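Limitations

Structures in this collection are predictions, not experimental determinations, and the ligand pose is part of the prediction. Treat each record accordingly. The example that follows, with iron/sulfur cluster as the small molecule, is included so readers can see exactly what is and is not provided: the inputs are given verbatim, and the output is the predicted complex.
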Amino acid sequence: MVLKNEADLKEDADVKLLENNGVFCTWFDKIWNWGRARSFWPLNYSCNCCPIEMLVAGGAPRFDIARYGYEVFRASPRQADLLVLAGPVTLKMAPVVRRVWLQMAEPKWVLAMGNCAISGGPFRDGYSVLPGGDSILPIDVYVPGCPVRPEALFHGMLELKAKVEGKR
Amino acid sequence: MDLWFTNIANYIVQLLMSWGFPYFWADLILLLIQWMCVLAIVVLDVIILIWLERKAAGFIQMRLGPNRLGPFGIFQTIADAIKLMTKEDIIPNKVDKWIFLTAPLFMIFISVMLYLVLPIGEGLAVVDLDVGLLYFLSLSSLTTICVLMAGWGSNNKWSLMGAMRAVAQMITYEVPLILSLLGIVMITGSLRLSDIVAAQSHVWLIIMQPLALICYFIAATAELNRGPFDMPEAEQELTAGAYTEYTGMRWALFFLAEYTNLVAVSALFVCLFLGGWHGPFLPQWLWIPVKTYVVICVFFWIKWTFPRIRMDHLMSFSWKVLIPLSLLNIVLTGFGIEIFAWVRGL
Ligand code: SF4
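Predicted complex:
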């Protein structure tokens, strides 16, 4: 449920009025988000055991992330849209991950994959692991699991797609 | 049916001249229209090809490939294009600005210029140069300069290494590429592409020049930086090679140029070896696209089934195998022509 302020409501009313008089209105945002939501290119980044599931989701015939058009794993953060934060973020890795995220071009999203990226998982009480990736990055979608199954990852990406299109 | 496009062109010129344009201007306007057609064909081709490549990769790896967006996922590339167009355009602080910004523009410009000499049918080239083959080869090797510009201007170690690899690869593979085509020039006696195609009306050169075909195909794969020769972009070693620092549309321009090159080189391959517009049943201007797409599918097939070759193997393969083979081809062709003339004289 999206809360709307007064200006938004007024805009909606205006659009209604135009549409009732036979004028079709749309937003460039809608077209752009339509494209963006259907072509997340994930970054080739990984930390631990969850990424193996990510690779299976990406390359294996049984799951095949390419069906949704998300299979273009880019190695350069400049061309990636989605940082799949898979696996625990160690204290040593944290500045690097943050830097990689800063190098990505807007619009960009982060998906926390697995219990480790969400909260530190089994390593939460360790001396060297961040208690969750959201302490350094703004995370859009959390996908729990240890490890996350590829289907769950797809579900997370489709949720992200709904989020980008403003349906959630 | 063969003459549809020629008739349309003549009609346009006559229409313009009946409106009082002098012939020079009418011809110029026709040239502009042809340019526009070339651009439209290029963009349409690339949109279809990227989808086709993803589907082909899926087929080869026993996956499905994109299938959610439209029938068989055909709108996937359009979504990608919209996304790339609206991405942030990052120009890093320390880059060499002019070189960095102009490299993709030059690259796409040069790749589109390749199309001008390709004959799509009898008398259906935009400009039918008498040194068409030479023009094509020299321009297609110029794209490497753009890769070098991108790598040097980015001021990034991965980019520079990728660009250096691209240049080394180009110098190595340009030699067998040109040597292997000399046999064709010897047989047809012309550098004009339409003459070369016209000479194949009875027998395609693929039968007379099988050795040149193999040499040319391998060298062309390397020229196009396609797998298994995609050293300049080797992801596992060089992030994204020469294009590491490029974002959004600038990167997409490089991508566009690479596919444009692929189509142009495949079309040249068709003109040189597969008889160009000659073929039964279909009209001439349909035969070239059909054959070109078949050649492109072979390129896809090779890319998705071979692992990447190592850099030093790549070099020694060209110098020790391809160049001797293409030289041998020239010798054999020379003997063949002499023997043929002698038999005829009997
Ligand atoms: S959530 Fe489980 S499977 Fe994933 S990285 Fe952590 S420990 Fe490994």
